[in-house]
Amino acid sequence: MRLPISRKVIENRIIQTVSLAELLRLMGRSGVWVFIPLYLLAEKDANYIEIGLLFLISALASIPVSIFGGNLVDKVGRRRIALTVSPVLAVLFLVMFLGIKFSLSDLFVIGTFIVFAPVAVLQSIVDSVIVTDSTGEMERIDAFSMTRIGANIGFSLGPAIAGFAVSYNYSILPMIPMVSEIIGFFLYFRYINYNEGPPVAGKNLLSFPKNDKRFIIVSLLVSLAWFSVGPWAYILPQFLSRVDLIGYSVIGILFATNGLSVVFLQLPVNRLFYRVDEMTRIAIGLGIYAALLQFSA
Fold first, then answer.
1. Which of 38, 214, 253, 263 qualifies as a FRET site for 247, CA 20 to 30 Å off?
2. Which residues, other chains included, contact 248 with Cβ-Cβ below 8 Å and sequence gap of 6+?
């Protein structure tokens, strides 16, 4: 029987580094995504529409990076961008910390929240390129599975840690991702150092595979899925806090339980659907989501 992840991928130092960095980053960011809306509700008297607009603007700000990010990485270089993005994010979270700690202008929190999303998207893109560079074609799926496991573990730990932290003091919340970005910088400085080749000169920043119909269909399906189920990460905490009057620590534990279930079920599900093509997997996933949403309603 095929192992869930090949030993060669598990022993790959670059994949280990990216996976650990993903764990640390999501551990910090997931707490921010979950509890910044609650901070704005409780401390800044924001309403639900304003919080929804905040996430909308943040998502819109990420679109240009999503379009141009891959070519930008080729022009500038993987290592250079990887070592630049982490300090930038650390500074953004430091500004957010100062804004919360000293009750400064709302822009210290709202502005940094909007800006950190596109920077984080660029970081995700360069990580994907690094994983692709450091693996062969047959190992790539296993490598991305391993990095995704790291991200899911981080997402599980983050809300639980943040839930207890914000119960004590909101200003602790941005300190967690700030520290994780600093650690991630040193990990990349030490271990992400391979012959990536010179930056690609003269490469256009905008290129789109318009003739790849399968890619376009998959992109539209994934977008539809995120449009349908993506907002739960910030809407659900508000509902649990304001309607069900559930404490922050319990909300964090609920999100941690959700994340851990993903971690433990990811490999068995991958093994179960190993021979199923990607389009069918996406269709099955959307069907399950639709059924769960209908059941919860």
1. 263
2. 35, 38, 163, 164, 166, 167, 241
